[in-house]
Structures
1.
Amino acid sequence: MAHITTVNLSNDKWNETDAGLIAVGVFEDKSFTPMAEEINTASDGAFSQAVEIGDVKGKSGESHTFYLEGKRVLLLGLGKKDKYSAMSVRVAAGKASRSAIEKKVDTVAVECLCIDCKHCQAVGEGLVLGSYQFLDYKTKGKNNFELKSATVLGCTKEDITKGAAIANAVCLARDLGNHPGNVTTPSRLAEAAKEIADEGGMNLTVFDREEFTEMGMGGLAGVAQGTDEPPKFIVLEYMNGGDEKPKVIVGKGLTFDAGGISIKPAAKMDQMKYDMCGSAVVLGVFKALAMLKPALNVVGIVPSTENLVGAKAYKPGDILKGYNGKTIEVLNTDAEGRLILADGLSYASKHYDPEFILDFATLTGAVVVALGHIATGVMGTDEGLMEKVKTSSKSAGEKVWEFPLWPEFCKQVQSDIADVKNTGAPSQAGSIAGGAFLKEFVGDNIPWVHFDIAGMAWGVKPNSINPKGSATGWGVRLVLDMLDV
Ligand code: BES
Ligand code: MN
Ligand code: ZN
């Protein structure tokens, strides 16, 4: 874990704080934030001069260092004032943390960079996300400089500490994703769930291979046949909302996807350690519930295994029976995510009376073709729920784009010899085929949205709140916004 876990609040003035770096802001229209204005006045217009000379343009992402009254002051570009949003705030606060690390300064103080305190939560999120690095395997130490603390000056809103808690949850999701397949195993996911359950007073149930096979989870059991690494079916229950119906979140916990007998090409196969990032969304969300303890009922479900080749591995043509009794013809063993999720969705539908179900999965390469590393593909059965997803997507700054689950697509996963098959029409609408398959395992009348996060869980363009070569934790913030945590 290399990131700060809390953000401090202080009423110190800029020249009173002992932080090694103080960050304030300037917009593209050359207007300063209140504390920048103060510093500018106290320093005979040091900032105005830099603006006049033309070095400081106020563009988003820009930063300039000044040395004033023995302090290191960072003037951050905040971009266009009329476009300033929660995302701009996150990115600017993240830049403050990131700059401190680059300068090997271990304490940073920032002005509350949200104008009129509209986006204080985003300040807390940005500071923590910007401090995130994945250093666990860097034994040399020389590049292992970590930020120790961040303080927000002149704002006392609890939203800041809430934002910090939420970002911690995102960092947990990133860590789980970044650790390789020999560390983030299904057992490790179950262990992480145990730590979270203990912290948050939650119920945890973990079914192992023998148990879930006996229970009839033929999808998970089928995929897990090819590995000796013990598979797990993990259920977390956070029940703090009285008798309201639970909201259920299901996540694909495929800790390494070699494709099975329908094996993947070698190039980039290493990236399939990230194939558990759906489960990381679930665990990240539960980490935040443990920390913030909102009055809600939420259930998290993670089917988890590897998908490997071996003498016992399941084969193309095999027919499996899912937990809801439907038979599945396996036409490609690499379309395994939907098989394990099928059991997760059926379990949620059978054992709870969910208000809604959301599932998160790095399900298809096709979604990367369609939307790149810009947005997650979403599809579902309920317009109202989809609207909520879109609203939270905007406030969390995590983009989604809806695909249609039209009957024509749903027909494409019907099998000639079983109830359904695990592939759709060859080379067509692959992400929708995934959604159409999953729909078969969601109970009638349960509002449900499927998130295909294959383009967003890693591989996005790095910025101040997303380091290069790291899992992103995409989705944690969106779900927490939806839950109104
Ligand atoms: N985990 C992969 C999806 C994936 C591939 C995510 C590449 C990110 C990058 C999933 O299990 C998979 O292999 N899907 C297949 C489905 C196909 C066989 C119908 C795919 O996308 O090729
Ligand atoms: Mn696969
Ligand atoms: Zn997969």
2.
Amino acid sequence: MSERAFYVTTPIYYISGNPHIGHVYTSVAADTLARYHHANGPAFFLTGTDEHGQKVAAAAAEAGMTPQAWTDALVVKWKAICARYDVRYDDFIRTTEPRHARQCVEVFERLKASGNVYLGKYSGWYCTNDETFWLESKLIDGRCPNPECGREVQWLSEDNWFFALSKYRDRLLAYYREHPQWVRPERAYNEMVATLEGGLEDLCISRVNLDWGVPLPGGGVMYVWLDALLNYITALDYASDGERFRTFWPANVQLVGKEIARFHTIIWPAVLWALDLALPERVFAHGWITLEGQKMSKSLGNVIDPFEIADRFGSDSIRYFLLREAPFGSDFSFSEEKVRLRRNGDLGNDLGNLVKRSLAMLVRYRAGRVPTGAHSALGARFTDLGKRAGTAIAALEFREALEAIWEFVTALNRTIDEKRPWELDKRGDTAALDTALYELCEGLRWLAHLIAPFMPTTARGIWTQLGLEGEPHGAWSTELVWGRLEPGSVVAPSDEPLFPRL
Ligand code: MSP
């Protein structure tokens, strides 16, 4: 892992409605990364809400509320969903906060002063749902070309501020060529290169006839996408060159859904360059959660309520499902049946039963006291597990990390089946029984640390049942040293299974 401080962001979510499981997906991935990195050095995890723009204003109007009252009411749910899923951010930024607006204006002034922003006439088509300007040639039957949208677009003709995006095209292309890892996965990288090769136009960054946004000097408001992108630096106190900014910028990983990769990998880097700032190390455009082949989205109305499924399956089961089901860059479909299979199989049968059986045997044969175990072949076999899983997490290969961890779960279960502690007990083979029981308990200590970034509540549950002090966490290189569990310590098994069968 990198030596310097680690900074990860999620997109800031439109607060035009309630969160759905797609939003939770990105936040859980970011949280897992952040928990891992927090355990290994200074780290910062930013998320928040995108509260300006026509889309939010329209939702508020429909509810008969002012946009501010609407966002104030709704943000409660967006914070609550983080709490419900153990998404432990370091900061939650709302674009309606004064700290943000103030810095947006400062950025605007700096861009103007450096000749990156100029006044011009904007005439063109605008899609409110996507908060995007479209070229006439891109429209499909005169409507928004985004396949999930297809809504009517509005003709706008206004005097507006423009950001000189087009002049960054060659520099962007060169940067892409020199940094093939900067946009991941490869599919997103290739799409962005193709877009750049097709040419760039300057970007209109103000709206004169709107008032729900960051007010700009001289009238109008800032284009909501520029306002939104700036959150990644305003939250760090960029404009006052705050300590957070100096410590954490540039971000190591910016997570986005693939539909908004373009904003983050073409507009955003150009804006950063215009401000003389370094680019994030990596933008990762993850796949979509789909339902019956379509992206889950508020506009399509095919959403899964994340509060409700957390109540039924448990938040950790959903966290596990989201990160285990598919490679992080790929789409995957959501179904309760699939969640149930993971929950009853990997979690209930494999992990839950392992914890229950291991601790029950320790209570039965050693009165709950961890014995001294002789040299363990199992420990030796898995010495590089922390390294393997850590490399996978750092590469955002969550599924691969979980697969590596589950090899260990399987090996521990096999230890029980092969060594048969009940027979060792019957035969009076004390040394072999001690070794087997120690292996199981030490294995559980490892597992608590290993799953901590992915399933924090379950990890703590295992930790408590082991009767250990402190907290399990992702500092695997120091904690996953075989034999650290102290013989003589006493476990505290619970009667409640970790994952009751559904
Ligand atoms: N407000 C903008 C982002 C501005 S960032 C400077 C926005 N908001 S959004 O509410 O539409 O949320 C988009 C993000 O939510 C996606 O990029 C993705 O991270 C997540 N997801 C929303 N629906 C999703 C799926 N169906 N599947 C996976 N992720 C999803 O765009």
